[in-house]
Amino acid sequence: MKQWMLKITAYADRLLEDLDDLDWPESIKEMQRNWIGKSEGAEMEFSVLSSDGQERDIKITIYTTRPDTIFGATYLVIAPEHPLLSSLVSTAQRESVEEYIDVASRKSDLERTELQKEKTGVFSGCYAKNPVNGEAIPIWVADYVLGSYGTGAIMAVPAHDTRDYEFASKYDIPIRWVVMPHDKKLSGSGKAYSGEGNVINSSNTTLGLDINSLSSKEAAFKVIEWAEKTGNGKNKVNYKLRDWLFARQRYWGEPIPVVFSDDGDEGVPIHETELPLTLPELDDFSPTGTGEPPLAKAVSWVKTKDPLSGKPARRETSTMPQWAGSCWYYLRFMDPKNSKELVAKTKEMYWSPVDVYVGGAEHAVLHLLYARFWHKVLYDIGVVSTKEPFKCVINQGIILGEVQYIAYKDSDGNFVSADSDTSAELQQEIIPEEKVIKSGDSFVLKDNPEISLIARSHKMSKSRGNVVNPDDVVSEYGADSLRLYEMFMGPLRDSKQWNTSGIEGVHRFLGRAWRLVVGSTLSDGTLKEGTVVTDEDPTSEQLRSLHKCIAKVTEEIEATRFNTGISAMMEFINVAYKWKKHPRVIIEAFVLLLAPYAPHMAEELWFRLGHSKSLAYEAFPKVNPAYLEESTILLPVQINGKTRGTIQVEKTCSEEDAFLLASKDEKLSKYLDGVSIKKRIFVPGKILNVILDRQNVKAAVR
User: Fold this and answer.
1) N or C: which end of the chain has fewer CB within 10 A?
2) Residue 190 is inside which H or E element, if any?
3) Alpha-carbon gap, residue 277 to 302, rounded angstroms
């Protein structure tokens, strides 16, 4: 079946290199690197030998990332689907090989390459010549080698590859050590050594190749250099990434805007004025049973004309995969009503790239990789101005259900502590939270603290019955309380544990914030109109409290640590409640800080403060660094060189003022009352040291 493919492999290097400039989780970038799977090594050619040991006209090309180990290759492995296999197999082994090929064809690539599975294979009955030492080595067929990766054939070095070691041990194939670990100890534990080291047992002066004593990297370079000179191989870069199969034989999906002339098979794109091409209405979109896609049933839609020649033509009946739309939707958000082009250049340049993309790690190597590829194609043809679509990616944590406390009971119904060492069969019982108390790092029964419990929580799911309906929470506490609690649970990137009782705390905070601005409820239960704010100028202390809050909230929003931003606002509320008056300039700035967290309540407060337009049009408060500087400091006070306490003083405090404050301090005054002072040592902003007369010191000793 002919299929549409997108040549994503042409972008493999750019997709790899540009990852370094992205503010993405390192785990996501590593997943993309592994999916692209770039590896550098060599292609080497092994001549196939005839039954009498002579070289045939057939050569097997293998790919290896460790050319330094080629002297340790004691057999070759080719994939069951390798195109040369049928011409290699001996008559005696043909039946066994064909049976093995049939079994392998029913396995998936994942099943074949599973590291834990037992390795299987069959001897082809044929040998090949190792080009570096001239040895005849057997050619095996095994399904742990895939025809789709590299050349579909490998040189097996059992001493230095785990899979090859297991295979060689099973089929009694020689194992030759050619790399000495840096610790100078060859493995004697029945395991392969796959690391690098210094090369041994790797010299053939006849062929002019001696890599003994070289490091693995130096040896690999020298082998490739020798292979290219002698025509036995070449340097090669491989990728696991495969071109993108971009067609589906189903009804739903974007139609592929290509037609085929009735007298030819070459596709011709339809004219741009006919885009977007929409699906025809079909009553029956079930499979056709003929191998043709369901769209083939829309006969009148399929029949069309070649846009170039005007001759009869037929439309492509495969559709695009779901990725076709999800790869560029963010661009359409920038200019959703544009009927002439994908996105206007001015709007794209203003909005691109996307500042923050929030999504799960499950999108790492499909949607996110495909979108990056799609974007780079658009960049190359001048549609977009940036090389990458998403500047920052954040993987949000999942919300776990409420904690379940599990107790164990024996066959007599008696509780058994979870940390007891028993082999008896035990029954589990869920214990209500009100019957549980915390003891150290564990939880125990409130009525019997000797019984420890298992505390665990699971991802919310209907099957576990631990889903919390947000509508119920909104009905009881309001949407802002729910929103605020979800942010207060912990950093956005972390998984968090739901606790319904925790909503009470943020709900009380919102209540306090409301009363700070509006005032307390009247005796009849109603609220007064307007607010209790004043138009007086704020004090320096009030400005300092506000700007400390602005600085913290701004910092934590940018770092997506919303929980600590909320804590900063809670601290501000605690301080503000101690003020006798609440200046408008302070309160309005606080309401704007609160808006991203509790938008509904903040909007209501904004209107009560006398504004007719939504606060959404207001600039977010900016910190003034001048207000972050503290005007007072804690000054250590020493008596005869020994620190006895501290006093709160202005930064510009003089020695006399500092001494006067120390004399009035409850803790320090007992050292200074009625004594003779020899001298005072004062370092502004650093320390006050009071030196007493010796007579005072002796009196103190007596």
Assistant:
1) C
2) none
3) 12
Contacts of 671 (CB under 8 A, 6+ apart): 639, 644, 690, 692
At 435 the three-state DSSP class reads helix
**Separation CA 683–CA 690 (nearest Å):** 12
Please identify which residue in the block is written with the tokens 């239960």: 525
- The three-point CA angle 354-357-361 to 5° equals 145
Q: Render pLDDT for 204-263 as a digit per residue (tens, 0 to 9).
A: 999 999 999 999 999 999 999 999 999 999 999 989 898 999 999 999 899 999 999 988
Tokens encoding 667 = 């803790």
Distances (CA, A) of 28 to 209, 353, 360, 392, 579: 42, 19, 10, 12, 49
Taking only the tens place, the pLDDT of each residue in 372-387 is 999 999 999 999 999 9
Tell whether pTM > 0.90.
no
CA distance 83 to 97: 14
Question: Under a CB-based contact definition with an 8 Å cutoff, are residues 246 and 8 in contact?
Answer: no
- Contact criterion met (CB below 8 Å) for 391 and 490: no
Per-residue buried b or exposed e for 628-665, using 16+ beta carbons within 10 Å of the residue's own CB: eeeeeeebebbbeeeebbbbebeeebeeeebbebbeeb
Phi, psi of 360 (to 5 degrees): -75, 160
CA–CA dist 43, 223 (Å, integer):
11
Residue 79 in tokens: 């994939």
Contact 313/260 with Cβ under 8 angstroms? yes
CA distances for 191 relative to 102, 164, 167, 485, angstroms: 31, 11, 12, 53
Q: Which residues make beta-bridge pairs with 210?
A: 203
Question: How many other CB atoms are there within 10 angstroms of residue 302's CB atom?
Answer: 17
Cβ neighbours for 36, distance < 8 A, ≥ 6 positions apart: 12, 15, 16, 239, 240, 241, 369
Largest CA distance in the chain: 121
Strands 233-238 and 39-49: antiparallel
Tokens read off for 355: 């500042």
Give DSSP secondary structure letters for 219-283: HHHHHHHHHHHHTSEEEEEE-S---EE--BSSSSSPBP-EEEETT---EEEPPGGGPSP-PPP-S
How far, in Å, are 78, 276, 366, 489 from residue 310 at the CA level? 51, 20, 39, 65
510 Cα distance to chain centroid = 33
Q: State how far the Cα of 59 lies from the Cα of 47, in Å rounded to an integer.
A: 4
Give every CB contact of residue 701 below 8 A, 6+ residues apart in sequence: none
Radius of gyration from C-alpha coordinates of the chain: 38
CA 269 to chain centre: 38
**AA identity, residue 264:** G
The encoded tokens of residue 145 equal 């080698």
pLDDT tens for each residue of 139-163: 999 999 998 878 999 999 999 999 9
Token readout for 279 is 């699906």
What Å distances lie between residue 679 and 466, 683, 688, 690, CA to CA?
Answer: 72, 13, 11, 6
Q: Mutual orientation of helices 584-594 and 562-576 as an angle, nearest 10°?
A: 160
Instruction: Summarize pLDDT for 300-359 with one digit per residue, the tens.
Output: 999 999 998 889 999 999 999 988 888 999 999 999 999 889 999 999 999 999 999 999
Residue 29, helix vs strand vs coil: helix
Q: What is the model's pLDDT at position 697? A: 53
- CB proximity list for 375: less than 8 A, separation 6 or greater: 327, 328, 384, 386, 387, 388, 389
- How far is residue 157's CA from residue 144's CA, in Å, rounded to a whole number? 14
- Alpha-carbon span 25 to 11, nearest angstrom: 22
H-helix segments, 134-189: 162-171
The three-class DSSP label of residue 317 is coil
For 412, the token pair is 């007599």
